[in-house]
Each structure stands twice: as C-alpha cells, then as structure tokens.
Write a structure and sequence with these properties.
Pathway: Amino-acid biosynthesis; L-lysine biosynthesis via DAP pathway; (S)-tetrahydrodipicolinate from L-aspartate: step 3/4. The chain is α/β, with parallel strands linked by helices and 296 residues long. 48% of the residues lie in helices and 12% in strands.
C-alpha cells in the first residue's frame, strides 16, 4: 500500500444497489474485495460522484463506509466523500465517516450557493477541523458550479492546515496545478482518467479513477511504467486506455457506464438511481468493446 494516507491508485467506487434500488451492502463488500485483491487498487473512494452520493441518504453513506472498512480496511485506504452544499451537513458526515472507520475524507467545494473563495476556504477548513482524519480536497468546478474552482491562493492557505494533505484535481488547469505543486506540500491525484499520466509527469502522486472500477490493473500499469522510468511505455499504456476512458466518461456519467459493464460481467452494481438513466444497448456494446481492447 502507498505510504500516502490516500493510496496511489484509488477507484472512485460505484455504490451497488439491488434490483429494487436499495443499498446492496453484501454486493459492496464483494466489489470492494474484487477491486483491492484483483483490481489493482490500494484505495477506494466511497460516496463520491461515481458513487451517486447525491442520491444516497446519510445513513446509507455511513453504512457503506462501515461495510467496506470491515471488508478491506486492513489492506486498502478507505476514503469517504463527505462534501455537501452546507458546512454543518458536511461536518456531520465527516464525523459519521470517522466513527465508521474511514481512513480519510474527500471534501468537495460547496456547490449551488456560489460562495466566495473566502467562504469556500472557511467551509473546507471547518470540515477539516471536525475530525482527526486526513483530508483530500476535491476541485471539480465543472460539477460544483461557476466560480467554485479553488484558486492558487485558497489552496496555498488550506495547505497550511495540518490535516489538509491532498487534492483530487478535476479542474483541467495545469498551470494552477503546477504552481500549487511547486509552492506547497499538497499531494495531487488526478480525478480525470485522461489526465493521470500528464499530471503524474508534473508531480502528482496517483489517481482517483472511475475507469479503475473496470480496468484497475491497466490504470496502475501506466503509473508503474512511468515510475520505473519507462516513459515511452507509460505513454503507450496511457494511449491504449484512451478509447475506454472516452467510452466511460464522455457520453454519460461514470456510474452509468460502470454499472452497465458490471451488469454484463456479473459484478455487483445494480441500477442507477434517478435522475440518472441506465445505458442503452448501443452504449453498452461500445463500452464492452472498448474494455476488451483496453485489457486485452
């Protein structure tokens, strides 16, 4: 396992539901073991975007963390997504995740209310103050709304917090990332599969990967090749994954694509919850073909 509290290759794990749409905890245990023991992942991020966190209750979120920690917490880092649009709610989720045994927290910038950078910084620091767990900030302005991208100045201030240790970078701003990497001790993780190798090349540590749900060893292989000094092989492996990354992330949310592939493979997943809709037959065929090519 990586010496980072957030691992090196983290799957942004889907949340399994049963055919009726209820939380499938036995399925979650089975899936977590699969991703860790055979899927090349040394960390799992729960209750994030790919985990359909906007559709699960607080009780379901906590139950999922507890079940996965019990199943694989001795051999993988379990990171709980606790970010919401409200500070009080995020603090409550953070404390519940800590009690459930999570090893770290993922905290997205607050959304919808369009807070200022000062307000965003205070929100994230307040959540970090609420527990003893290390915190990964999630910078994903495409989802949290206009004006919510963390600035270099805000990231630099938050880096001074003793528990704010990492960033899941989905900002698509290499200049900002390079500046923060050069001026702080924050550990960076690519949150977009197409940027895992480019970000590693400028100093990121690893990834929080949607595609790792279905091709974890291939995702890990890109980083392994780069870290071994074989940059040409890393680039080759990265390019080989691009059609799968495109299929999984470009047309529908990642949870939809991953659950379609899991259904075809007999892995736990179940339906997506509304407002998401399941993948149609054409997309499922495209996904399956891209996966076959990517993993040989």
């Amino acid at each position: 396992m990586s010496d980072s509290p957030f691992g090196r290759v983290a799957a942004a794990m889907i949340t399994p539901f049963d055919p009726a749409g209820a939380l499938d905890l036995p399925g979650a245990r089975r899936l977590a073991a699969h991703l860790v023991d055979r899927g090349g992942c040394d960390a799992l991020v729960l209750n994030g975007t790919t985990g359909e966190s906007t559709t699960t209750s607080d009780e379901e979120k906590t139950a999922l963390v507890r079940a996965v920690v019990e199943e694989v917490g001795d051999r993988a880092r379990i990171v709980a997504g606790v970010g919401t649009g409200g500070t009080r709610h995020s603090v409550e989720l953070a404390r519940a995740a800590e009690r459930a045994g999570a090893h770290g927290l993922l905290v997205v910038t607050p959304y919808y209310s369009r807070p200022t950078q000062e307000a965003i910084g205070r929100h994230l620091a307040t959540v970090a103050d609420a527990t003893a767990l290390p915190v990964m900030l999630h910078d994903v302005p495409a989802r949290t709304g206009e004006g919510t991208a963390l600035t270099v100045e805000t990231l630099t201030r938050l880096a001074e917090h003793p528990r704010v240790l990492a960033v899941e970078d989905c900002a698509y701003d290499l200049m900002k990332t390079a500046r923060v990497l050069g001026s702080t001790g924050l550990t960076y993780y690519s949150g977009c599969d197409e940027l895992t190798l480019p970000l590693r090349a400028i100093g990121a540590h690893g990834c929080v990967s949607t595609v790792a749900n279905v091709a974890g060893p291939a995702v890990r292989g890109v980083l392994d090749a780069f870290d071994a000094g074989d940059h040409a092989e890393a680039a080759r492996r990265h390019r080989a994954l691009v059609p799968l990354v495109d299929a999984v992330t470009s047309e529908v949310p990642g949870a939809v694509a991953v659950k379609a592939l899991f259904a075809a493979a007999g892995l736990p997943g179940g339906p997506v919850r509304p407002p998401l809709l399941p993948a149609d037959e054409a997309l499922t065929l495209r996904l399956a073909g891209a996966l076959r090519k990517a993993v040989g």
